[in-house]
């Protein structure tokens, strides 16, 4: 009987060339992906209790099911890992930019830019010098080491700071730095690989390439971001569920156009997301919630695949662990603090704030993805570089990521953890109507704060549908008094929306959901 089943599974249909065995393999692959996703989602609960960043556990899941673990998957395709990692970073940066308020980030734009350029350069230089003596390699290979781990990681920073309520300008600086420092790290990494392979390469041409990447990447991002926000608001789609996909398509378009122009695609995506996220945006709530969920999925996929790519038997050797720990200590306790204090020397950050910025410079997916570049270039010490960089990332996320919250509290830089209000409001078929549902949070400076609804001169036809107050829903009446922190859901005709905006006197009007 067993022979018959095996013969049946191997039999191919002559007309289609389709094998039953291939169907079984496909089903097994789908089941494995489902199990990995379920497991990764569930481990996020343990990460909160253990105080360990979830991305470390995602990597652990990948290492567990890999060839050196349970042996379910054999994976050594650095090119595929690089592709998945890049796609995931595009999604993560886009979601981070959508959630970032320009009014906050513009205050720290210059110091964040210095950290993203001068800070990365200083970090790469100091780590490079240390790598030269630790690994006894050439100077070019040593500075390649430093370049790969020189930048902080947006995926790690966004994930660890989510909901921590760190002091506004500190959190904004970290997020802006991590969202914009990839061009410098990518430029340095590619440049040193080229110098290793082609010693006669022109250094001045490589330097000009950096300014091209930064300038054109920023310009492309701003331009496509403006086009994207206008398109989302003006094109009336048949289903509200299409708007999140429409928004994400502009992120992918931004990256591809910028990359084809040899500019920084990741910087362009972050710039486009800032423009879109800070515009009056139709279906904002749906777009944000979709991207939040999709970002989690891409983080899980990326870190699991990166975990699959590493072989623990090669990673946890005495040579890699010993030298990796030494280089991690130099990066975390010397290179990063020196880079922060030198870059921010003239800015009004306190000593505690600079120390916190130094400690919160997490390494994550970006260094690991960059570590695949030497593998793809087939450099002599590429496997050593990848293993050590991977170990540094594990050390950084475990040590720094797990202690960011306690350190923020010790330095009195964090308030109570943010909690998302437990409420939702879904609308059906409003896309074809000539009205919008506006979500607006009342601030201390809002003109209607402290007034009763009947005393407020709303535009004609405006209706307050609901008020969310401290997580509870309040049915609005004429005598209901608006309070600070209230979230109002206001139904207004599109022609009167600008008049409502003037009434609310908001810096940014939260648009239709």
Automatic annotation (TrEMBL):
Keyword Transmembrane helix included in the entry's annotation: yes
SUPFAM superfamilies: TrkA C-terminal domain-like (SSF116726)
Transmembrane segments annotated in the record for this chain: 23-43, 55-74, 80-98, 110-130, 142-161, 203-225, 245-273, 294-313, 325-344, 356-377, 383-408
Membrane topology recorded in Swiss-Prot or TrEMBL: Multi-pass membrane protein
Principal place of residence: membrane
Compartments in which it is found: Cell membrane
Domain RCK C-terminal: 425-506
Source species, domain of life: Bacteria
Keywords (A to Z) from UniProt: Antiport, Cell membrane, Ion transport, Membrane, Transmembrane, Transmembrane helix, Transport
PANTHER family hit by this protein: K(+)_H(+) ANTIPORTER NHAP2, NA(+)/H(+) ANTIPORTER 1
Protein name: Potassium/proton antiporter
């Amino acid at each position: 009987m067993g022979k018959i089943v095996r013969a049946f599974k191997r039999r191919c249909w002559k007309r289609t060339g389709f094998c039953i065995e291939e169907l079984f393999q496909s089903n097994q692959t789908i089941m494995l992906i489902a199990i990995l996703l379920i497991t990764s989602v569930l481990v996020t609960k343990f990460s909160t209790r253990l105080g360990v960043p979830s991305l470390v556990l995602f990597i652990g899941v990948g290492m567990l099911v890999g060839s050196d673990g349970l042996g379910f998957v054999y994976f050594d395709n650095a090119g595929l890992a690089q592709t998945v990692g890049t796609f995931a970073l595009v999604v993560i940066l886009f979601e981070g930019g959508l959630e970032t308020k320009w009014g906050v980030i513009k205050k720290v734009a210059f110091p964040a830019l210095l950290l993203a350029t001068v800070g990365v350069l200083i970090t790469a230089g100091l780590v490079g010098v240390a790598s030269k003596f630790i690994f006894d390699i050439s100077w070019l290979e040593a500075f390649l080491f430093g370049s790969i781990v020189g930048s902080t990681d947006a995926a790690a920073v966004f994930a660890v700071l989510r909901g921590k309520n760190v002091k506004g300008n500190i959190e904004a600086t970290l997020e802006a730095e991590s969202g914009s420092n990839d061009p410098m790290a990518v430029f340095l990494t590619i440049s040193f690989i080229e110098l290793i392979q082609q010693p006669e390469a022109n250094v001045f041409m490589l330097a000009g390439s950096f300014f091209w990447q930064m300038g054109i990447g920023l310009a492309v991002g701003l331009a496509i971001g403006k086009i994207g926000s206008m398109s989302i608001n003006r094109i009336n789609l048949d289903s509200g569920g299409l708007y999140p996909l429409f928004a994400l398509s502009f992120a992918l378009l931004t990256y591809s156009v910028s990359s084809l122009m040899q500019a920084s695609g990741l910087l362009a995506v972050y710039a486009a997301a800032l423009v879109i996220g800070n515009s009056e945006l139709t279906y904002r709530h749906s777009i944000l919630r979709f991207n939040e969920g999709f970002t989690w999925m891409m983080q899980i996929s990326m870190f699991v695949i990166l975990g699959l790519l590493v072989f623990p038997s090669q990673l946890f050797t005495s040579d890699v662990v010993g030298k990796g720990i030494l280089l991690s200590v130099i990066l975390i306790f010397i290179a990063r603090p020196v880079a922060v204090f030198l870059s921010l020397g003239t800015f009004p950050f306190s000593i505690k704030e600079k120390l916190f910025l130094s400690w919160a410079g997490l390494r994550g997916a970006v260094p690991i993805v960059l570590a695949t570049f030497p593998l793809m270039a087939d450099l002599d010490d590429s496997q050593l570089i990848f293993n050590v960089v991977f170990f540094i990332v594990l050390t950084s996320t475990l040590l720094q990521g797990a202690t960011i919250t306690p350190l923020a509290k010790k330095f009195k830089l964090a308030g109570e953890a943010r909690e998302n209000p437990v409420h939702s409001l879904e609308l059906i078929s409003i896309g074809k109507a000539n009205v919008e549902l506006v979500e607006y949070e009342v601030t201390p400076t809002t003109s209607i704060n402290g007034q009763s609804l009947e005393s407020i001169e709303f535009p004609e036809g405006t209706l307050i549908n609901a008020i969310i107050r401290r997580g509870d829903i309040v049915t609005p009446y004429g005598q209901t008094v608006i309070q600070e922190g209230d979230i109002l859901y206001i139904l207004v005709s599109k022609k009167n929306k600008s008049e409502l905006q003037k009434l609310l006197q908001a810096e940014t009007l939260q648009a239709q959901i």
